[in-house]
Specification:
The complex is a heterodimer of chains A (about 220) and B (about 260).
Chain A lengths: L4 H34 L2 H32 L3 H34 L10 H22 L2 H9 L1 H21 L4 H33 L8
Helix pairs in contact in A: 1-2, 1-3, 1-4, 2-3, 3-7, 4-5, 4-6, 4-7, 5-7, 6-7
Chain B lengths: L8 E12 L2 E12 L3 E5 L6 H7 L10 E9 L2 E2 L7 H7 E4 L10 H11 L5 H14 L3 H4 L12 H13 L5 E5 L7 H14 L4 E5 L3 H7 L2 E6 L2 E7 H6 L4 H7 L5
Parallel strand pairs in B: 3-8, 3-9, 6-7, 7-8
Antiparallel strand pairs in B: 1-2, 1-4, 4-5, 9-10
Classes of the chains: A mainly alpha (about 220), B alpha/beta (about 260).
Chain lengths: ~220, ~260
């Protein structure tokens, strides 16, 4: 007999809300990069406006977590699950903030002709979003190994970030009249790199959830 | 699991087995109890926690057909093997039960009972013990003007604190509490918990409780018993945040059975 079915259902709802929030953030990142590639200014504005939906979801998750803590007296793993849900929702919210930042960069660049076709930034984005997806799967499956594998990919993102920045600095010397665009593209690289950092943090929260020990997976 | 014996150990239980007739109720218990700490014992009904606490002052001997093997070392003396003065043992290892059970006497006489049977006759000395014991349980201010009225006129929470004062009057060094708040309202319960936290400055306390929050609020160490076995004994903060055994986790988070 499950002696805490109501509490378990509520914990499941908390997970579902977190996944919904993460999916929306993931979509926002993908769409924001698309606005950059296609210089879709209208869509960029839409992404900025829609960020409140993700912010609201974070508040809902936090409120639910607080109510569950107050009413269900969670201990041990149950308590960690609620704490981790709060922490992950904060990471996911900041990922969505990066989508907003990327959309703002799109607006800053405007319709100015791009210095080159944008190819490597989406590649970097794909790795960062893969990390996000793996970290969240690790959360749902309580899989420490998958969390560690996800975090390990951060090195690749950091490496790509370094290469891209170097390349952009090269363009800066060649085309000083494109300084604004090049700076915005460098910012975008930084925002993607931050997404990977948040995914790494989520992986660390998974390790804490499962083992009860704080870890640093990105030394 | 912290089963290391140190100089701070007041009770050191080694390989304790207990049978009620053919029923093996405690199995190979190793359990050090530290001085001036609160140790909480938790576990489902029938796990052996009340049986265990009653072995510590040999109250268990009142149950027919009990057989024990192993060691219960109290301050270095194995109380199972050596001939000892049971009255003296129970003076040093006091006990408080589920429900306050004052004698049908005055408040004063309840507290003075223990010292009197241990030979204290002088009124001034008894007055001093009664006052101090009642102050220790934070009951003095509530009863100082009616010390000679019947103890049974007190509320449930006050009766329980009176029983703790009665146990303290013989100057024990260990206080055993078997679900001391299970019959009390929430405020009386919190008063007893506050009292336990204050008393541990002077006494070693072992408390059996069904109330997990109580164990987490008042104790330094928590022991989880299951079907006669000591499954886990550790710092209370560890037991309630990251227990080592899945069965402990299941029990404390209410997902047991």
């Amino acid at each position: 007999m499950n002696t805490r079915s109501n509490f378990d259902n509520n914990l499941k709802q908390l997970d579902d809300m977190l996944i919904e929030m993460a999916r929306k953030s993931e979509t926002a990142i993908k769409e924001s990069i698309n606005t950059l590639i296609h210089q879709d200014l209208e869509k960029a504005k839409e992404i900025i406006q829609n960020d409140t939906v993700i912010d609201d979801l974070e508040h809902e998750i936090n409120n639910k977590a607080i109510v569950l803590t107050a009413m269900e007296s969670p201990v041990a793993r149950d308590l960690r699950e609620i704490i981790v849900a709060i922490k992950i929702s904060s990471e996911v919210e900041r990922i969505a903030d990066n989508a907003v930042n990327i959309a703002k960069s799109t607006l800053h660049i405007g319709n100015e002709k791009l210095i080159k076709e944008i190819i490597d930034i989406p590649k970097m984005m794909n790795i960062a979003l893969e990390m996000l997806s793996d970290s969240l799967t690790a959360f749902l499956k309580e899989d420490v190994e998958l969390a560690k594998k996800s975090a390990a990919k951060d090195d690749k993102v950091d490496e790509m970030y370094g290469i891209l920045i170097k390349e952009l600095m090269g363009y800066l010397q060649q085309s000083p009249d494109k300084t604004n665009q090049i700076t915005q593209l460098a910012f975008v690289c930084r925002y993607i790199e931050r997404v990977a950092d948040h995914a790494t943090n989520i992986a660390e929260h998974v390790v804490y959830l499962v083992t009860g020990k704080l870890s640093n997976l990105n030394e | 699991m912290s089963t290391i014996t140190t100089a701070r150990t007041v009770f050191d239980i080694k390989d304790l087995n207990l049978w009620y007739g053919n029923h093996h109720a405690l199995k190979k218990i190793h359990f050090p109890i530290n001085k001036k700490e609160v140790t909480a014992i938790i576990g489902p009904s029938g796990c052996g926690k009340s049986t265990f606490i009653k072995t510590l002052n040999l109250m268990i001997n009142y149950v027919p057909n009990v057989k024990m093997t192993g060691e219960i070392n109290y301050n270095g003396q194995n109380i199972l093997n050596e001939k000892l003065d049971l009255v003296e043992l129970r003076k040093n290892v006091g006990m408080v039960f589920q429900k306050g059970n004052p004698f049908p006497q005055s408040i004063y006489d309840n507290v003075a009972y223990g010292p009197r049977i241990h030979g204290t006759k002088r009124k001034t000395h008894l007055d001093e013990i009664v006052t101090k014991s009642l102050m220790d349980v934070a009951l003095w201010d509530e009863v100082k003007d009616r010390l000679h009225t019947p103890a049974l006129g007190l509320s449930g929470g006050q009766q329980q604190r009176l029983c703790i004062a009665r146990a303290l009057a013989t100057k024990p060094d260990v206080l055993l509490m078997d679900e001391p708040t299970s019959a009390l309202d929430p405020i009386s319960t919190l008063k007893i918990e506050e009292l336990i936290l204050n008393l541990k400055e002077k006494y070693t306390i072992v408390i059996v409780t069904h109330n997990m929050q109580q164990a987490s609020r008042v104790s330094d160490k928590t022991a989880f018993f299951l079907m006669g076995e000591l499954i886990e004994l550790d710092d209370t903060s560890t037991i309630f945040s990251n227990p080592a055994d899945e069965r402990t986790e299941g029990y404390i988070s209410g997902r047991f059975g």
